[in-house]
Amino acid sequence: MSITSDQPDNLAPNLLLVDDDEQFCQVLSQALIKRGFTVHTAHDVEAGIRLAEAVAPEYAVIDLNMPGPSGLVLVERLKRLDNHTRIVVLTGYASIATAVEAIKLGAIHYLAKPADTDDILAAFHRDEGDTAIPVADRTLSVNRLEWEHIQKVLMECEGNISAAARTLGMHRRTLQRKLAKRPVKH
């Protein structure tokens, strides 16, 4: 699905928005249109790839956790299509492992939901790291460490839950239940 801005096509940059939450896509795309983008939305990785091949987006906002392949697959594909595409990964399931992988695959920034339009636009234009970011003054909780370890193993198993469960020495359904829960903040 494509939603265009009020500007002529040659002035409005193409932005690909891929998130399985259709209501979130609708709200964010309207906000981005008001900021001068031509927005193309998809709700899974395969549809996102098809749109990217058709419209060659200059910008992309990609959800990490969607049915089917993860948003990381789309990040990698977008960078192969056009290395200059500025990609922000947006997720409600933030982890250190997925943040590192997203950046390695070519995303310029990684934001945890909820993030507003201004946060996303600012992320598109950050080319440098920020040394003023405060360093956490406490260690992660055991629950958060478990979440981070599960995410790392899942990445190493290329998203295969059965393989990750075997590696972690737990039943696949137990791992699925843990993954279905929202991550612990600290």
Structure summary, number of beta strands:
6
Kindly name the structural category.
alpha/beta
Largest beta-sheet characterization = 6 strands, mixed
Shape: globular
Summarize the helix and strand pattern as letters. EEHEHEHEHEHHHH
CATH homologous superfamily assignment of the largest domain: Response regulator
Q: Low-confidence segments, ≥5 residues, pLDDT <50?
A: 2-8
Count every helix, treating DSSP H or I runs of 4 or more residues as helices: 8
CATH class of the largest domain: Alpha Beta
How does this structure look, described?
By secondary structure, this protein is α/β, with parallel strands linked by helices. It folds into two domains: 2-124, Rossmann fold; 142-180, Arc Repressor Mutant, subunit A, CATH 1.10.10. Helices cover 46% and strands 15% of the residues. It is built from eight helices and six strands. It has helices at 22-34, 45-55, 71-81, 96-105, 117-124, 142-156, 161-168, 172-180; strands at residues 2-3, 14-18, 38-42, 59-63, 86-91, 109-112. It has a six-stranded mixed β-sheet with strand order 1-3-2-4-5-6, sandwiched between helices. Helix 1 (22-34) links the parallel strand 2 (14-18) and strand 3. Helix 3 packs parallel to helix 4 (96-105), helix 4 packs parallel to helix 6 and helix 6 (142-156) crosses helix 7. The protein is globular and about 55 Å long. The model is unreliable at 2-8 (pLDDT under 50).
